[in-house]
Amino acid sequence: MTDVASRLAARRGAIVRNQAFWGVIAIVLLLAVNVVADPGYLSIGYNSGHLSGNLIDILRASAPILMIAVGMCLVVATGGIDLSVGSIMVVAGAVSMELLSGMDGTTGDAALTLAIALGIATVLGAVNGVLVSVVGLQPFISTLVMMLAGRGIAKVITGGQNTTADNDSFAWLANGYVLGVPVVFLLAIVIVVLVALLVRRSALGLMLEAIGMDSRASRLAGVKRRSLQLTVYSVSGLLAGIAGVFATASVMTVDVSRTGYQLELDAILAVVIGGTSLAGGKFSIGGAVIGGLLIATLDKTVVFLGVPAAATPAFKAIVIVVLCLLQSERVRSLFRHRRALRAQSQKEAVAA
Amino acid sequence: MTGAPPIVEMTGISISFPGVKALDAVDFRLFPGEVHTLMGENGAGKSTLIKALTGVYKIDEGQILVAGEERRFGGTADAQAAGIATVYQEVNLCSNLSIGENVMLGHEVRGPFGINWKATHRAAADVLATLGLEQLDLRRPLATLSLAIQQLVAISRAMVTKPKVLILDEPTSSLDANEVANLFTVIRRLRDQGVAILFVTHFLDQVYAISDRITVLRNGGFVGEYPTRELDRTTLISKMIGKDFATLRSLGSERQSHHYEPRGEPLLKAEDLGRKGSSEPTDLELHQGEVLGLAGLLGSGRTELARLLYGADKPDSGTVWLRGKKTDIHNPTAALAHRIAFSSENRRDEGIIRDLTVRENLVLAVQAKRGWFRPLSRKEQDALVRKYLTELNVRPADPERPIKFLSGGNQQKVLLGRWLATEPDLLILDEPTRGIDVGAKAEIQAAVAALAAKGVAVVFISSELEEVVRLSDRIIVMKDHRKLAELENGPHVTAETIVAVIADEGDDEEGDSE
Amino acid sequence: ACGGGDDDTSTSGGDELVTVGFVAVGPEGGWRQANEANVQDTFTEEAGFELKYAPATNLDQRSQIDAFTSFVDEGVDVILLSATEGAGWEDSLRRAQEAEIPVILVDRGIEPDDTSLYVTRIAPDNYEVSTAVAEWAVSEFPDGGNYFVLEGPAGVSVVNERNRGWDDAVASVPGLVKVGAQTANWSTEEAKSVFETVLKSNNNDIQLVFAQNDEMGLGAAIAVEEAGLTPGVDVKIATIDGTKPALEALAEGRLSFVAEYNPLFGETLLEVVEQVLNGEEVEPYIVVPSETFDSPEAATAALPSRKY
Amino acid sequence: MTVTTRPPTGSAPGTAPSLAERLGARLSARLSALPTVAALLIFVGMIIYGEAAYGRIVQFNTLSNLLVNNSHLIILAVGLTFVILTGGIDLSVGAVIAFSSVAGVMLSNAGWHPVAAVLVMVLIGSVLGLISGVLIQYFGVQPFIATLATMFLARGLASMLSTVPERLADDSAIRELATQLKIIDGDKVNDLVITPGVIAAIVIVVLGFLVLHRTRFGRTVYAIGGSEQSATLMGLPVPATKLGIYVISGTLAGIAAVVYTSRLGSAQNITGIGWELDAIAAVVIGGTLLTGGTGFVLGSVVGALVLGLMNVLITRDGGIRPEMTTIITGGILLVFVILQRVLAARRRATQG
Ligand SMILES: Nc1ncnc2c1ncn2[C@@H]1O[C@H](COP(=O)(O)OP(=O)(O)OP(=O)(O)O)[C@@H](O)[C@H]1O
Ligand SMILES: Nc1ncnc2c1ncn2[C@@H]1O[C@H](COP(=O)(O)OP(=O)(O)OP(=O)(O)O)[C@@H](O)[C@H]1O
Ligand SMILES: [Mg+2]
Ligand SMILES: [Mg+2]
């Protein structure tokens, strides 16, 4: 009996110590706030052949963030950072729209476009990888360069225009439904699961963590730092490309100055909320997914509550700070201390 | 010493970490003007006791009196202010700064315009000179120094504050005999000035050479406090390990008597292997089942040679034949693929990966060798881990514990396990017994001997010449980054032989240059 | 033409080119693109000009001030200024005056509007354009209705002016109820995301959207369609700018009203520059006439000749 | 003791160190200054190139405007040098400027004494820096995230104060801080001028240099950058120092706000977006490593001037397509870091 209780307590301790747990709590709290504002918030309707509702919107909005967050998570695990994901998004979007606007709108066109856009995104990611692993530049600077240049490249591709295109198959990627569920979310989840399986079922995860924790020691242990870093930045580029396709396909327009703008910050936040340290090492893809969902929920909540545009950043800041405080060891030990004191006084009361 | 009250008195100190009781009601006293050695196996709690004293760890129970007053320090800075200077076990310096800056960090001499660098450097030079480091260029980046010199720099740093209590946690682990002698002169002088010195080492010779009193810990528990005079070695060892020590003693002579006769083609043959600035072109031959010792003083270039063999540094001259075939070993991955393994002398920075678990650390090299897409199944991993944890007697034998929570000796054993698990034909061990307790040292030596018997070629580097002599079939004596001599081992070879070889050459050279 | 004291190059119209420094906004959207391309296409070497084009980085005013200063230091003949922000130009303009370089404001004005600091301002009128939208809205919804405003980034002067124009005309009308305003940062994608949520939080009970640029209006239209409603019928969307995609959408009935904010005034600008260089007097504010399009037919008619 | 310690001298094995080798050792000790020297050389090269290609660079007004226009950036870069030297980062400086200047202008217009308003502006910076510092030091929040939160917070507070430009009254004494003091009155605008802002920047640079190199605080900053754990175990005041650098960075952002606002005569909530990246780029160009431990304040000044000069040159050229500007900025940044790397590697190789 006490054994079960203690095991439960231990389990609970592990959950509470798991940083992503607080991300889940934050999502639940935000949803609760929305429900208070409008009791019908969580209701999911069925209209014109698909599910609809605020939750469905959140899932759809989270898809691009999930993509870049997962890519970022892998990069961060190796002790790096990828500031260029937002810019790679806009490049992929620009390539897609520019190609599609000159085509007829067949599914074949869409597939070809997708392949080219993702290919280019991967190449840009690989350039990051080369700068970091072969040239040996600091990740922050290499990807900062790509962040600056990427947006410029997108503008060159569209000639500075916000190109619009028409292709139903392409738009379906972002706006379509399968079995009533948004395709874009299903795709995102499938990709996340694939990446997670790849990383965790192979020894890739261990290798990435080893590099992130101690690249010198892992080199001597035979870990191929260069090729792994190259791979990781390429994957991050590819995923950012997918995110760019998701983002532009939803409106079939690429906005060269806005698409993906500052989304790298969202991705980094998602990763950190998920419990991965920016210092590298242990990483959690599940955590990054929770972080991504939280950010989508937060963005949607701000709009739903009609928080004035001016106050939005402050609202975000408060959520981040509270979350960080909850995740911090110090605050938690404060709580623990309180609880311990309470338990002790109870015990003493029993003894007396 | 007799009359004076203790300057540090710790009573009933207990500290637990998740899953371990690192200290359990330990008592410890330190008197002014004495050298007090703290003894115990790896993981006995020596470093923890020191950190408890200086406030790096918070104690769960117990009392600390410093100069008769109850104190709880908040950290090294606090302790320093109270006159307790500490050199922790792993070298803790800032490799981005210069030697002089490191020595004086936090104690720079200040004038009206802030730090007076001239005076600061002068002070640094003075304190370095006491350890015989007067020829060091103070402006050199610390990173260019070998670990051993760094250790001496760290010790110099502790003496800057003119402390009343000086704590040295394994200061001699990287030093050779001369350095040790040098250090002991300094320690004796400080002792005579009334400084209380707490000293940790695993070298029994050093204990008997320098210490006045010994406190023994075992498994986090307090065993006893003894005047050194009243405790002979055997008793000391049995107090440390808690059982009889006879089995360990016989080992060394056994290996030396077994002498290997090289037959047939060498496993590895190197010609003119070298690297500009770090290693003169060297010829080398190595046979299966042979233990090749590299002996020399600090900075003689043993580590560099080993790193070249492993591809950790790229050689810029020379050819290597492996099993008769010309081979290019340009990086560690290639070396592993050719069944060469290398355990670095720098356990903290180039060995363990602190935040990974024991299991992950142990399987890392095997996994890297296989490539990430061919993962070891959990079952295979567990089998490997179980095998080496038992074989090498790692304590605690908990594979899921982050390796940073193991004591130094046990970390070393896990690393040895990592390399053995790759089933190498050639194993290069650079200072594998650094900071290892007597028992574990014997175990590691036994493991090396067993490997050689199984046909593995071993390159064995150690600053402890006795150990090299005991284990090796052949010994290469190095100096100034080049091969000085190659000795066939035998009953006629002793540590003194090697010292003599080095010294002769040194005299010759000095004669030449003057 | 490196700006000596009495400049005779422009009057002689000879072989030397007139150097024009254009402190521009840079890629921002369809409208800006059309406007700046138009200016660049007008001040060509054939026309006797060397145009130095300096777009802002990230729409940051600081980079514009740097570019402006640099043009003054270099001693160009004329400076065209499209300020990202109205305030904070006094110092720079005064230095241009000291250097005897005439400054012409293109599109956006400065605050406070001290006409002694510049020669003239050529622009469509934001206030008037958004008033035009508001007037259409009032006439379109005689019985009133709920409306929502999609704004540009909070704090930008265009946003403030367009809000003012709208509010002044609509505030006094009792039936029109503002259910909210959000920024969508001029972006289609964000507008779609914002408006789909706004529709849900208002149970689709919104009849009118005032989008402060075309891109956001198009985003709102997509959100309306995805909510199963019909734009133009259930929700009417009015936008400002008058880019081609917007007119196409208007022709299809997805948008209901488009107010042009005419970007193509390069010719006027060229004339004014020549007048200024010849020392002629010019009006302190030259308003560029803008049209409005209130029906699919009007849009269809205008589309073939649309340049942007 | 016949054989004394023979520390590895880096000389060719077996020979006594010659003069050349000792010189090499000297240089190697200064290795960390190399990137900074490289930055300085490239800066001079850029000036020469600019003068040759476009003219009117080496003249009083262009050079003094380079200082006047970039004085706030220099001040920010000094603050970030402190932060980055410890291996941290401060993303909040741009937003701090926005909040501090909007608040300052509003207070001044509300009738506050200008000195009080300026003090509040600086203090706002210090307080926001303190918030970041406390989050980082006492709650273990990672610097990137903590300062990101501060950034959102400051931006949000600024927007809540006002979303329209707040103009300083024409007679406000704060405007005096931008008075152009003509040292040499040249033809037309070709004057050698200096503003109180420039003087402030120079004083701050000198102070920054002295603090870093001549105080124990400064040495601790470097030590933390080398190894925070070692610094702690060496008994250095790590927590206080880390707190201190974020306060310094915030305070300097506050001062930069004063300098910038006085020059502009107005303040706005959207001021300073992306300036943190400019400042970080300046620091990096100046040769400071983002991983901490090496770098110089003077390098950051050169970095800021390089960025400023680059903008001038791009403007002077005038023919660069708008979509190319960010690509060029990124490209130049890249060339810079690669060049520094190559130089350092070459030096290290020859020294060996
Ligand atoms: N920070 C920590 N967290 C958890 N366990 C720890 C920590 N530090 C030490 N331990 C454990 O405490 C015990 C005592 O370790 P300690 O480092 O004091 O040993 P030691 O006597 O110094 O050994 P060595 O001779 O190898 O240095 C070991 O079992 C070790 O695993
Ligand atoms: N912290 C470090 N970082 C990088 N390289 C190091 C470090 N410490 C040591 N080294 C390398 O290892 C060498 C140390 O070897 P050293 O010159 O002392 O010869 P050695 O004969 O191996 O001496 P010993 O092993 O007794 O220290 C240094 O010259 C350097 O090349
Ligand atoms: Mg220890
Ligand atoms: Mg060595």
TrEMBL record, chain A:
Q: Where in the cell is it found?
A: Cell membrane
**Under the cellular component aspect of Gene Ontology, which terms does the record hold?**
plasma membrane
Q: Topology with regard to the membrane?
A: Multi-pass membrane protein
The organism's taxonomy opens as: Bacteria, Bacillati, Actinomycetota, Actinomycetes, Jiangellales
What is the name listed in the Swiss-Prot or TrEMBL entry for this protein?
A: ABC transporter permease
Q: Name one Pfam family in it.
A: BPD_transp_2
Keyword Iron listed? The answer is: no
Q: Which organism is it from?
A: Jiangella rhizosphaerae
Which spans are transmembrane here?
20-37, 58-77, 83-100, 112-134, 170-199, 232-256, 268-296, 302-326
**Would the keyword Transmembrane helix turn up in this protein's UniProt record?**
yes
Which keywords does the record carry? Cell membrane, Membrane, Transmembrane, Transmembrane helix
- Where does the record place a coiled coil? none
InterPro entries in the cross-refs: ABC_transp_permease
- A GO molecular-function term, please? transmembrane transporter activity
What's the superkingdom here? Bacteria
Automatic annotation (TrEMBL), chain B:
* Family annotation (Gene3D superfamilies): P-loop containing nucleotide triphosphate hydrolases
Q: What is this protein called?
A: Sugar ABC transporter ATP-binding protein
On the tree of life, the source organism's domain of life is: Bacteria
Q: Which residues form a coiled coil?
A: none
Q: Which InterPro entries match?
A: AAA+_ATPase, ABC_carbohydrate_import_ATPase, ABC_transporter-like_ATP-bd, ABC_transporter-like_CS, P-loop_NTPase
Q: Tell me yes or no: is Cell inner membrane among this UniProt entry's keywords.
A: no
Q: Which residues cross the membrane?
A: none
Keyword entries, A-Z: ATP-binding, Nucleotide-binding, Repeat, Transport
Q: Which residues form the ABC transporter domain?
A: 8-244, 262-505
> PANTHER family in the record, alphabetically?
CARBOHYDRATE TRANSPORT ATP-BINDING PROTEIN MG119-RELATED, GALACTOFURANOSE TRANSPORTER ATP-BINDING PROTEIN YTFR
Give the species this sequence originates from: Jiangella rhizosphaerae
Q: Which GO terms describe its molecular function?
A: ATP binding; ATP hydrolysis activity
Automatic annotation (TrEMBL), chain D:
Q: What is the lineage of its organism?
A: Bacteria, Bacillati, Actinomycetota, Actinomycetes, Jiangellales
> Pfam families from the entry?
BPD_transp_2
Q: Where are the transmembrane segments?
A: 33-54, 66-85, 91-108, 115-138, 192-212, 243-261, 296-314, 326-344
Name its cellular compartments: Cell membrane
**What is a single molecular function from GO for this protein?**
transmembrane transporter activity
Question: Might you report a single GO cellular component term?
Answer: plasma membrane
Q: Which residues form the signal peptide?
A: none
Its main localization is membrane
- Taxonomically, the superkingdom here is Bacteria
Record-given protein name: Sugar ABC transporter permease
According to its UniProt entry, this protein's organism is: Jiangella rhizosphaerae
Q: Which UniProt keywords apply?
A: Cell membrane, Membrane, Transmembrane, Transmembrane helix
Q: Its topology with respect to the membrane?
A: Multi-pass membrane protein
